[in-house]
Amino acid sequence: MFSCLKEKVGQVLLPGDDFSFQADDTISLTDNVKPEKVVCGPGLRRSGDRLVVCKSGVLRHKHPNMFWIDSQQRRYVPAKGETVIGIVMVKSGDIFKVDFGGSEQASLSYLAFEGATKRNRPNVQVGDLVFSQFVIANKDMEPELVCVDSSGRANGMGVFGAGGLLFRVSLGLVRRLLSPHSTLRVELQQLFPCELVVGMNGRLWVKASSIQQTLIIANLLESCENMTAEQRRHLFRRVAQGAL
Question: Is the pTM here over 0.85, yes or no?
């Protein structure tokens, strides 16, 4: 299976494509060679002794043995531990209902903020943007968000969004922006220094020194989703020279 997957790296796969164990992947009783283990990322699912593609896109590989499908998906499925940008929709008692772009709203307790107590409640209003992470993300339970990490610190989470612009992009662009060595993020900061909040649910919030620069950054990010690296650098050079 490992060799078959490596041969398909960079190719477009469709839902229903599958990979099965081959003879060289079986365990030998005489040799000490162990079979390669495969770590499945988004878009791949194990089914018995087969690996099934459940999302259309380009197969990617990360050393040593991680594979995933890189797609232009916009529908977000919540996962535990992921940070998202949500909008407070309802304020009822001790619970806030937050829209994160999924099939249902998530709940956020007023105690799920740093330093919050029954007497010291956070100032959260309907329509506020919150940067939070999932602690419960199960298909059989209501999603639950918190604005603190495991040690009880905000760590950048909480209410934000004054004076910026919120817009949506594909989940593939979000992963490119959040990668540790993202050239797109570096080139963008060199062009226009700005504040950028990235949610795993495909929502971006940006704030630059002026409204014009904020709108330019939003248009650039939406435009470079399907561009190559060379096309993106050419576009950024034109913007820096004032050609656009």
Answer: no
